Amino acid sequence: MDEYTFEIFTEDLKIGREFNFSYKNKKYFISRGKGVWFLSYDKEKEPFTFKDVEDLLTNARIEGAKLEDIWDEVEVTSIF
Q1: For residue 76, which of 63, 52, 3 has the smallest C-alpha distance?
Q2: Using CA of residue 44, residue 49, residue 53, residue 56, what is the dihedral sign?
């Protein structure tokens, strides 16, 4: 597979795919529920919740940065 770009990631989110990924040796998970999306960090008890994909892409922060801004340092480990 060619490089997994942020644009492809965005399209995959829009069709409902979920992801495991790592950033700076920390594990994260993006999942969805009924009418809601979650961003979880492996050490946090409660995930961050977002109303839809656009809300997640606009407002999700990891160490203060948007996913798009850190994408080059993200390693996607699983896609569901």
Answers
A1: 3
A2: negative
State the Cα–Cα distance between residues 50 and 58, nearest whole angstrom.
Answer: 10
The answer to whether 67 and 58 have CB atoms below 8 angstroms apart is no
Per-residue confidence band for 1, with pLDDT thresholds at 50, 70 and 90: very low
Mean per-residue pLDDT, 5-27? 96
Note the residue count of the chain: 80
- Return the amino acid letter for 25: N
Backbone dihedral region of 17: left (phi > 0), alpha (psi from -120 to 50 degrees) or beta? beta
